[in-house]
Amino acid sequence: MTIKRRITADERLLDVAHREEWKQKAAWRVMKIQAEFVEGFDTLEAAELGNAVGVYGSARTGVDGDEYKLGIELGRKLGEAGFSVITGGGPGAMEAANRGAADAGVKSVGLGIELPFEQGINPYVDIQLDFHYFFVRKVMFLKYSCGFCALPGGYGTMDELFESLTLVQTEKVGKFPIALIGVDYWGGLVEWLRSAMVREGKISPDDVNLLLVTDDLDEAVEHMKRGRE
Ligand SMILES: CC(C)=CCNc1ncnc2c1ncn2[C@@H]1O[C@H](COP(=O)(O)O)[C@@H](O)[C@H]1O
C-alpha cells in the first residue's frame, strides 16, 4: 500500500517555501497553536493521569522482535508500579509501551502527531490526542510526565531525550529521572558524551550522571519512582 504524502501544519509554519502564505495567515496560525495548547492541557488535566512516565522509542521497532517485547514489559512494569504511560502514540516501541500499560490496566496515553505519511494511532492507546505541532506536543510530554524512559530509537527519540536532558541540566525542571534502556544500544552514546563532551568541557562530568543506562527494567522503574510527587 502506498501512503499519499500530505503537507503538514508544522511544515506550513516552518518551511521557507510557505512564507507568503504565512504572512497572510499568521494570526490564524497563532490561534491554531494556542488552540492546540488548550486542547492538550484540557484533555490531560481531565484525564487525571497521576504520576506518569513518558516512554520514547523507535517508530520502526518490529512487532516480532525482542525490543518490542521489552517495550511491552516496560509498559507493564511501569503500570504495575502505579504509573500511567505516555508515548507518541505511534507504532513500534511506542505501541509496545502502550500495550504493556493497557495490560497492566493503567492509563495509556498517545500524543499523536500529524506526519506527511500518516500511520495512525496504535490500538493500545486509551487517551488520544492529535497534534499538528511537534513543539506543542513536547510541552505535553514534559508537563504530564514525572520521568522518562528511552527505548532504542532514532532521531525522534534523540530529540525528545535531549530536550528532556537540557531541561534537567538547566534546572528548568526539578527531579526528573531519565533512563536509557539497552546498554548495548546506548553505551556508545554515553561513552561519546564522556570522551568528547566532558573532555572538551562542553558539559560537566556530573551531567552524564543525569542518565541511568540499564538493561534491568526493575531498576529503570525504581529510578522513575524518584520523580514521583
Ligand atoms: C515509521 C514512521 C516514520 C512512523 C512515524 N510515526 C510516529 N508516530 C508518532 N510519533 C512519532 C512517529 N515517528 C516519530 N515519533 C516521535 O519520535 C519518537 C520516535 O522517533 P524515532 O523513530 O526514534 O526517530 C517517538 O518517541 C515519537 O514521540
TrEMBL record:
Keyword Hydrolase: yes
Organism: Glycomyces luteolus
Its EC number(s): 3.2.2.n1
Biological process, per Gene Ontology: cytokinin biosynthetic process
Keyword Isomerase in record: no
Catalyzed reaction equations: N(6)-(dimethylallyl)adenosine 5'-phosphate + H2O = N(6)-dimethylallyladenine + D-ribose 5-phosphate; 9-ribosyl-trans-zeatin 5'-phosphate + H2O = trans-zeatin + D-ribose 5-phosphate
Signal peptide, first to last residue: none
Gene Ontology terms, MF aspect: hydrolase activity
InterPro entries: LOG (IPR005269), LOG_fam (IPR031100), LOG_family_nucleotidases (IPR052341)
Entry keyword set: Cytokinin biosynthesis, Hydrolase
Cellular component aspect of the GO annotation: cytosol
Gene3D superfamilies associated with the record: 3.40.50.450
Pfam families membership: Lysine_decarbox
Protein name: Cytokinin riboside 5'-monophosphate phosphoribohydrolase
Enzyme class per UniProt: hydrolase
Family to which the UniProt record says this protein belongs: Belongs to the LOG family.
